Amino acid sequence: MIQADSKHQVRQFRQILLWPLQLLPLPETEPRRHWQMLEAMGDDSAWRRVVKGIGTAEEESQEIRYKEFLVFLPHVRRFLHGEARGSWIHTHDDPPGDSAIRLFRRQDVTALRVVPRAGAAPLLLDVESIELYFFDDIDLAFLKVEISGRDLSLSLARELLYRLGRAYPTGWNEDGLGIHNVVLAEWLGPSGESLVTSDSNDRARFLAFSCRHRSPGTSAHWTFLLHPLLPAASETPGPLRFHQVENHHMPLMAYLALDNPRGLTRDHWLRLGMADSLHPDEPIPRNDPELTGFEGRYFLDRYWSDTDDGPNCRFICRGRVFLLVGDAEEGYFVNSGRGMLVQFRHQYFLAFLIVHLYRAALLVFSDRLVDAVHDLDMRQGRSVRTFRHRIHLTFEAFLRFTHRYWFHEISERTDIQSVFQLAGRNLANERLYREIKEELHDMSQYLDGDMQRRQSKTVTQLTVVTAFSLIGTVATSFLGMNIISEADAPLLTRWGYFFLTFLVTAVIMLLTLMQSQWLWDLLDLLSDARKPLRTRLGLILQFLRTSSSDRPPR
Q: In this structure, which long-range contacts are made by residues 434-443, counting pairs with CB atoms below 8 Å and at least 24 apart in sequence?
């Protein structure tokens, strides 16, 4: 049973799950993109495209969009909102570019009924939004699910943070229940009707799926939300398919408005900071080296004064988890129109999204490189050509990602930039970027070196063929001399001489090509002017004697 914490009540609770998905590339013959195919499905899909931005916001939310727009630097605004508009900026030959983000939303799910663990009472949470983000030039999508609740115990809030965002169960206990996921998750429609229920307790299905496809299955309630996007290994027909980028626990953001956050002990803060990795029933690992300097690495206390006058708002960011914890009595913290709550849902969310876009995109590039090397067979020319083509496509996509998305600074606001940098550092994005860049550079050098080697070999063969062909060409064409004068011979005789000459010339040419490397070595010895002629002739005789028996064809 969940131990209720009566001293610390969460008056407002929000959790945003952000699930990165690697989309399977569409065929090169398919002119549409993934989001265009989803949009074209119309009524066959619950997803509807949303044009989101300052120019499309409703009147009551225009100021929110305006602040969201201005908080980021111009180069970040360009891919979030598109290029600036104006008759003097762009011409008909250079129209303004749109946002690099394509947003879809579904509104048929309004609530979530969840049972966190065995024996717990069902809890009803509101579903604030379910959105799907696509990005240009990257085979990547993000599922965003935002839920909210009120008047929860701190223990229950931690339970939800730990259990809710699990794409599939990682194991089962003696009773057949998942050991990390919620016992039951049920999406509800506008009238309270049940749309789908989780199947995490179906142990046989998950085991059979993994054994058959060498891939983890996805729980039914998450598969329902993503439809018509399907897991790559699913046997259900459909063109839009995805791989999971990371493990089963989705990155998450959480907003907790507490009665008295100053009353939280260090153990409370540690459990909140490790909400995704520390089981609610597990004791705090006191000897874990990570706990040394935990606050210094993962906490941002710019708005934490620990005084009665406030502010008392604390950021916790471990990369995959971002928590905003504050005082429910502070009007600015809970203000949904101008305070920290609206910033959490918009400005901090976008900073968190950008950081995880970086990590997911880099992991996608890494997966492409590993798959390309895995499929490479140096003994087959077709495999080498396919490998070269895939590496060039990946290199071009990486260049577009670098110049369109990759930035070290996204805002002049200290808090936004600090969250961005702290999350990126804890996710090791910089190190991952350097690794991918070096791998692409090494593969590019290998391909360039292989191409130069092939060109050098071709030049060698052509040089040898030209050199030996020159002898016969000059000998037979000197003064227009004809060795066999058959100009007046019957047509059949002349054709016979032609085909005989053609056959002999072709055989000589092929033999010359096959032995081009050996002949090149012979010509190299003969042309070495640093040695006397007698010495060169001796070396040539020695070369002929030693190589005549084991000379491999070239």
A: 435/366, 436/362, 436/365, 436/366, 436/369, 436/398, 437/398, 439/366, 439/369, 440/365, 440/369, 440/391, 440/394, 440/395, 440/398, 443/369, 443/391, 443/395
